[in-house]
């Protein structure tokens, strides 16, 4: 037998049998999500032809990983949710594997990441290094810069601190995904030294939910393959770099809940033809410099501008946006009348929030909103009769307006 997959077959809290070590021809072993408990039998170390090992999402524990040193053919390891509290030498024991390319050790209760990486081929073979949801702390170790083939680095939800230097990570020219969210990083810096890569392959950066201060480095705009940027819930200040407007592949840009300032113009957005998510809420940004005849190059799906200065006029550039499903224009300084064309594009909207403005006028007698939508138009200056809703809505709020009569049946 060369291939054994027992994933999602529930074994009712039983132990992995030691006899599994007799299946010496196995190259693929998948026991994920199978209800196994107890210590991982070191007899798995007898499976010297094993290339793929997945023991994830059981209730397993390993007191060390010495048994793994015999698995010289191993390329893929996923031991997420395995308790490695006592396996304090785990990195040294794994790094001896000469062919390892993929390592998933999320939610393993790892406590420390060594400052030194033992000499091995590990740094030249590893492509995915995922250690999210552990208890790792301190600053990022310098040996991460030795990973020559790394495609994905995931350190989400740990306790790392200190600054992140893009230049120190610039040796990772093949890196495609960088996830450092939910830590305690303090600054995203560019030390001004020349870039080490002719072209960056990185497509996704997630450094959300940290304590980042200072400005967003201009060098982010040099990473032309970026599709996803998540920097929300930090303390970034200053202006949004205009270089972000050159990221023609960008689909998701989330900068919500920072201290960003200044005005945005069409130059920031002129080349973002692939953009479907724009989150700028809870900053100190002005959106009212965009000209009334501007026609965006994108079709936005999610637009979150809460507490940005958009008004006093209703944003006319929304007129050609036919695919919006989430629109948050709350507390945006709008004192205009909602134009009639808006109700022609609203049938896709599942979440509409234009509360806490000074929006005037009357709503149409029949509002064209998506099925099971959430609508919040509180705290405006709307008047006339409350409208009928064409579809069933999940939640609606019209309070603190000037409506004169109820819904006409």
Task: Please describe what this structure looks like.
With about 400 residues, this protein is mainly β. It has a domain of about 110 residues: Ribonuclease Inhibitor (Leucine-rich repeat, LRR (right-handed beta-alpha superhelix)), CATH 3.80.10. It has four helices and 30 strands. The strands form six sheets. The chain has a 17-stranded parallel β-sheet, with no helix packed on it. The longest helix is centred in the N-terminal third of the chain and has 5 residues. It is elongated. The model has no long low-confidence stretch (mean pLDDT about 90).
Notable characteristics:
409 residues, mainly beta, Leucine-rich repeat, LRR (right-handed beta-alpha superhelix), 17-stranded parallel beta sheet, four-stranded parallel beta sheet, 24% strand
What best-fitting shape do the alpha-carbon axes yield?
elongated
Query: What is the count of DSSP helices, taking H or I runs of 4+ residues?
Result: 4
Give the percentage of residues in beta strands: 15-25%
The proportion of residues forming helix, as a percent range, comes to: under 10%
For the record, what is the CATH homologous superfamily label of the domain at 1-95 and 111-124? Ribonuclease Inhibitor
Q: Quick one: how many beta strands?
A: 30
